[in-house]
């Protein structure tokens, strides 16, 4: 192997420096391009890692063992689906009671009804001369916040069994709604009008702005499911929520729910499900 002498190394170094001096701008731009490229790669990797963590945290806050029953696959546009999916029957209010009895390995079975702008409906909540539009009105049962820990009460309380049994006109407000209607005072105990009907504010949720462009808890107003059913009989699109205890096999619990739903909807053995069972993992 032939080694470079000290004088040769010195000559090569001086030649390289002369080349750099004669092309200062080009050399600087080259170095700058390399720095920007490396920095961009590092920054993008950090952003992607941060987004992954953010989404994972959201999934955990929704409830890692929480599952949803819906008419259509979540996050899809039914108008672009085959007719056999578009024409599926709605879920019914009495399904939850049947599933509770037929699926002993699940807990917190809830029916949820929603009236929101993304369904083409408009809602208005007012207090005195203040008003908030583009809110989501949701009917829920008392176990709703157990199944979905994302809906965390900051002040007051959630809907009780008594509220649900008597279809009481009470509401839990998202933080943004509460702050807009009552900027200088506590909303608890105050009366608001939801689409013209009077409701007592019994609770306020913790701040949550949502995932990316999706709606967050901040713009939800939740009332008892029984009251929602009475006030908005035209709302047909329901979903069901249930949880699986940690000591129960998830597949076993899901199979119980699926079989209960198939019996309820009288689906023949040779036909596919006409409903969807999903978990928050669809956000990933």
Quick summary:
The protein is an alpha+beta fold and 284 residues long. The protein has helices at residues 6-22, 24-62, 83-86, 95-102, 144-147, 161-165, 175-181, 225-231, 250-264, and strands spanning 66-70, 107-115, 124-127, 130-133, 136-140, 153-156, 170-173, 191-194, 197-205, 220-224, 238-243, 276-278.
Strand content: 15-25%
* Low-pLDDT segments, ≥5 res: 44-61
Strand and helix order:
HHEHHEEEEHEHEHEEEHEHE
Overall, the morphology is extended
Q: Average the pLDDT over all residues and give the rounded result.
A: 83
Describe the largest sheet: 12 strands, mixed
Helix content: 25-40%
> Roughly how many Å is the radius of gyration?
28 Å
Structural class: alpha+beta
- DSSP helix count? 9
How far apart lie the N and C ends? 56 Å
SS elements, strand count: 12
Count of distinct structural domains: 2
Describe the model.
The protein is of the alpha+beta class and 284 residues long. It folds into 2 domains: 6-59; 66-283, no CATH class. It is 37% helix and 22% strand. The protein has 9 helices and 12 strands. Strands 1, 2, 3, 4, 5, 6, 7, 8, 9, 10, 11 and 12 form a 12-stranded mixed sheet that branches. A hairpin with a 2-residue loop joins strand 8 and strand 9. Helix 4 crosses helix 9 (250-264). The chain is extended.
